[in-house]
Amino acid sequence: MPTRKLNKVKAVMDKVFGDPEIAYGLKEFTGVDFDEVLEIIEEEKDRYYIKDIKSGKSRLVYDEAKGKGRPEEIIRQLWLNKLHTEYKYPLDRIDTEKSIHFGREIHAKAADIIVYKKDKITPYIIVEVKSPTEVKGIDQLKSYLSAEGAEIGLWSNGKMRVILYRPYPKEFNDSLPDLPPADKTIDDLLEEKKTLLKYTDTSANLKEIIGMMEELVLANAGVDVFSEVFKLIYAKLYDETEARLSRTDKEIFFRKYKDPAKTYSTINDLFKQAVKKWPGTFLEQENIKLSPEHLSVVVGELEKARLFGSDLSIVDEAFEYLIPEVAKGKKGQYFTPRHVIDMAVKMLNPKKDEYVIDPAAGSGGFLIHVMNWVRDNYLNRSEEAAKEYAKEYLWGIDFAEEISKVSRALMLIAGDGRSHMFKLNTLDPREWQGEDQESLDARSQLKRRLLDMGNSADNAENKKSFHYFGYDLVLTNPPFAGEIKDQGLMRQYLLCKKKGKLVNKVERHILFIERTLDMLRPGGRMAIVLPQGVLNNTNMEYIREYIFEKARVLAVVGLHGNTFKPHTGTKTSVLFLQKWGGEAGKPAKDYPIFMAVSKRGGKDNSGDYMFKKDPKGGLAHDARGKKLLDHDLDEIAGAFVDFARKQKIGLGSNQMA
Description:
Blueprint: E1 4-5, H1 9-17, H2 20-30, H3 34-37, E2 40-44, E3 47-51, E4 58-63, E5 68-69, H4 71-86, E6 94-102, E7 105-116, E8 123-129, H5 138-148, E9 152-156, E10 161-165, E11 174-175, H6 186-191, H7 196-199, H8 206-216, H9 225-245, H10 260-277, H11 292-302, H12 312-322, H13 338-348, E12 356-358, H14 365-378, H15 383-393, E13 394-398, H16 401-414, E14 420-423, H17 437-446, H18 457-465, E15 471-476, E16 483-484, H19 487-490, E17 497-498, E18 501-502, E19 506-507, H20 508-519, E20 520-531, H21 533-536, H22 541-550, E21 551-558, E22 572-579, E23 594-597, H23 633-647
Helix pairs in contact: 1-2, 8-11, 8-12, 9-10, 9-16, 10-11, 12-16, 13-14, 13-23, 14-15
């Protein structure tokens, strides 16, 4: 039967992988044109074969009738191409499906690819390829390295790679940031100078890198994974900052060196300098606790990711993965999906002269998106102007140690110089009276935002109790779980008193409603995520009456039930308020309220993100190649903007344009 070459290799690849997005990710990972480097032929009706780059033989890659494919074969051919064209290994030093000898046992065709040394006999690099949906096989690769005595092992599923290195005569598996090209040694690779723009990648998946670091070393290193990874991220942030701003050649020092002791001393020194530059997150006497050997493995994985300039949602996802359970679900505290934050920011339209606070700041998502909104809409997209804006106008509080560290790091990555991020218990100002340096710093800075009530006794009390503030905007997603039973704390809140008597307990988010309204100046506006029961349960009527008394309800947006999955299926709404007074005028009883319910939440029932499809059925991407989330919150925000304009609602120092 005559063969027929396919001009559109990707069409078959999509069938093989069963997901067009995988092929898109492979193209990003490999940087090649599939039609140029791969040859797929329909040798028999509905049976597709790929030409092996090494041997020229045809290998079955997809059977249409059975609906079965061999995705790992495509990954193998892409790596054969990469080894030959990018790393310059001659094809006569490469073999495929090589048998591995385990003593007297022979595993036929076990190794997917083997690269030999110049003698064409001694195994040098063993490559184990997997389907893009697989994440296992590293232990298998280690056994191959041990059996064959090869120095380097590469595991890849096409979306990511891990490069192992066995430094003779040591028995442990180290890692390498890259493969050495044919004309260089491993020592050359480790000793060469590296620069920020050439050797790091903003699209690297930090979550997957951290997961691989755990599998290789961290899970058995006897250290607190969150703390040690965070130290490394802090050190890397400092190194990237210095490379961008202070080093003319943009050289990076956060990398793996030949000697593990040098790797440790260099990275630990970067960490110590980062602590001095950005105090308040770590103690000055702290050091990296990983051993030099363990650190060497970890750095080999982490050095290839570039944090500055990366997609913050990717970095945020990695931090959420790291945060221990005790700091997340058990306290009802979850990272707010970025499309929910985008909607809230667009609807409140923060200006360049407005002070903004998130009293349950978490990872700082609301504040980062506010900074980006102001930069893009009011500061001519100037990064430097945005940084100066954030230093003055953005404020955040969170009580969880781990999460407050995350928010500071993300604010650093976003480029704002850290802003006013405090580790405090928002609901209990009594705890703000500590004499430690952080409490003193927070207290002195927060006093700047207290409402000035003249020379009255109330103003003097306000400066002690930190009760009423003068923020223009509050955007927050307070923790839902947990009840407050502390009588001393509850006495500070009107919502804890019914008919003049103090209640026995109250849910935490109820107190956040009163606390956040007190943080606003008259005319100030806010967005707060709340359980939907607050808005419709009969036993919550007194809460709704309190809200109507204190503020104008601008909008209520019911979020999709999958929004906060997989952490919780609690039905939530975003409540938008404007405190009476100022631009809001005097309290009114009858006025229009914008109401909307999200029908497409961007997630499926399992909590996985869902993405928009293009007209051909593939995944749609924006101009930068980023997948487009399938949700309707942008449409809801746009409808609210039209509503506010028609109702002539005064939103801030300027009317909404």
